[in-house]
Amino acid sequence: MASSKISIYPSSSSSTSNSKPPPGWLEYILVNYRWVIVIFFLLPASFLYDIYYYTRSWVVFRISSAPHNHDKKVANVQRQVRTWDGVAPMCTARPGWQTISFREGAYKKTCHKVAINLVDVLRIDTKTQTVWCEPLVTMGQLTHTLVELGWTIPVVPEMDDLTVGGLVMGTGIETSSHKHGLFQHICLSYELVLADGSLVTCSKDENPDLFYSVPWSYGTLGFLTAVEMKIVAAQRQCVCVCVCVCVNRFVKVEYKPCNSLENLVSTFRAETWKAEGNQFVEGLLYSLQSGVVMTANMCNTAEIGKINEIGRWYKPWFFTHVENYLARGECGVEYIPLRDYYHRHTRSIFWEIQDIIPFGNNVAFRYLLGWLVPPKVSLLKLTQGQAMKELYEKNHFIQDMLVPLDSMKEALEVFHKEVKIYPIWLCPFKVEANPGMLRPVGGREALYVDIGTYGTPGVNNYHPEETTRRIEAFVRKVKGFQMMYADSYMTLEEYREMFDHVLYDKLRKGMVCEKAFPQVYDKVNRKFRI
Predict the structure, then answer these.
(1) Is-contact 216 166, C-beta < 8 A?
(2) What is the structure's pLDDT at 29?
(3) Which of 2, 43, 91, 122 is buried deepest, with most CB atoms within 10 A?
(4) What is residue 127's predicted lDDT score, i.e. its pLDDT?
């Protein structure tokens, strides 16, 4: 999941036996009948919020008021920074429950909060093939705006509610990342308000040290106010279905079932390295010895009878749809509308929603209430009680570990031994040999794979801290990285071993950030999160 991923909750049926009884009737309902709260309260609230949010975004973009208002909003951020009293370090005023990560930063309670209301797409320039966005623009909002105009960004992390700012300051990944890199690698420039209240723009040519240090810094070098990104053309097709109808933009997806770990790893590598190149490569592992490798490419035509609008509310969850190819043991080809493909895991929040609404993939539920799914993660967080947090802590494991592609087989065996969670999400990506937090193996551009595990461990000896630390140690050993939206139990020394702090430390000192912002470790480590 990305910083691109999100965290939900353990199912009550699998977890309550290991926990103390909740202290009150409300806690009891929230734990044992979570689905009641979700269906009757959170789903309608999420739906109404989406209507408001997308309508507002559409109107603002159409009347082109965002660029003018942007200057005013940035000036307000600068004013707040310049009047900072210098006692406590600064952070954004955005409540912790609104973020996509399960945890809330404890630093929010003690830091000086700066309000940042930057939520708009500012400008699309098809001549230079760029888009300017404010940091709280979501992936759903951005793809809706761009695809409608025939454009897209090269890397679209799949969850609708992921924000541009979160993907820049943290990280983001998608099945096109083996071609284009992580989300940071499609960014051309950043606009930030620094500790002294000044407004700067940085790029590879202007303030390059700052440009390369912003990703993975989690807001500890300045406040992000705008991002310039590359855009690419999204191809348009017309398909005849009885009559000639323009159906939209499509992705041709090919499914390749694999019935051994060796076969899956070799197929995954071959498709990633393929000479002519697949635009998208993805894998879903359903057991250590079985999975499906998917490749996809935007195309100019779609075969009648093979179009699958997987984003429709009544469609089965994508991961269950893919598993059918494995069950049948045969390859397959279908055409998915581009935006449906980008957000194929959104409705089921990968596979986490099955622990919240166990019957959510039932055909009757999908047809009657599927149009309300998914609930907002922020609302799920806001309505959880202490009992839910404790259940989650003891019985749930969510991690994205980024390991060199050559270490993929060994890494999957480690995950099987330590947590035995399936499905596992597999996504290849490249790490460029640029300055900054990420050091690719050998100091040269290298291919990695994101191993995403989200769910209840299937082993008897699972312990949140001890198990995670063993996996973190393995990832450090193979020169990999951990996505820091998830729980990390590394010491400061281990964290600095995994991530290159040379340029980051230089900038923190040179821009007088020590008192103005927390250190990145003090924002991402488990002991600083609640």
Answers:
(1) no
(2) 66
(3) 2
(4) 96
